[in-house]
Amino acid sequence: MSGDGLVWSVLISILIVLNLSAVLLYRKGKMPLWGSGLIIGILGPITALISGSIFLKIDHSMGGDGFGAAFSAAFIGFVIVGNGILYLIVGLAIVITNFIRKRQLN
């Protein structure tokens, strides 16, 4: 498998797990979307660091210098943090809309 395919498969699998858990927790009423967005935003750099260290080990075992591993880890981290920020913004918009609707009814 090429390096690009590995990066995309890791990124898509992480995003599927995080997004499914955020949506399922929101639908069950156990966690608001803004809370899920906050947690995903915090987990983004952690998952990037873990995947980057794994990519670095793979790259060094193939005789590389590790620059591609660093760029791919940064890309994964930015995408996951961006996803978390998107959930945070949507969750806050839902909270504000519900607050305004409740205030207009009273």
Which tags fit this structure?
106 residues; 0% strand; mainly alpha
Question: Strands, helices and their partners?
Answer:
Blueprint: H1 3-28, H2 33-61, H3 67-105
Helix pairs in contact: 1-2, 1-3, 2-3
Count of discrete alpha- or pi-helical segments spanning 4 or more residues: 3
The average pLDDT value, as a whole number, equals 92
Unreliable residue stretches: none
Q: How far is the first residue's CA from the last residue's CA?
A: 60 Å
Strand fraction: under 5%
Tally the beta strands: 0
Which H/E pattern describes the elements?
HHH
Estimated radius of gyration: 18 Å
Overall morphology = elongated
**Percentage of residues assigned to helices:** over 70%
Biggest β-sheet description: none
What is the structural class? mainly alpha
What does it look like?
Helices cover 89% and strands 0% of the residues. It has helices at 3-28, 33-61, 67-105. The protein is elongated and about 70 Å long. The termini are far apart. The model has no long low-confidence stretch (mean pLDDT 92).
Short description:
By secondary structure, this protein is mainly α.
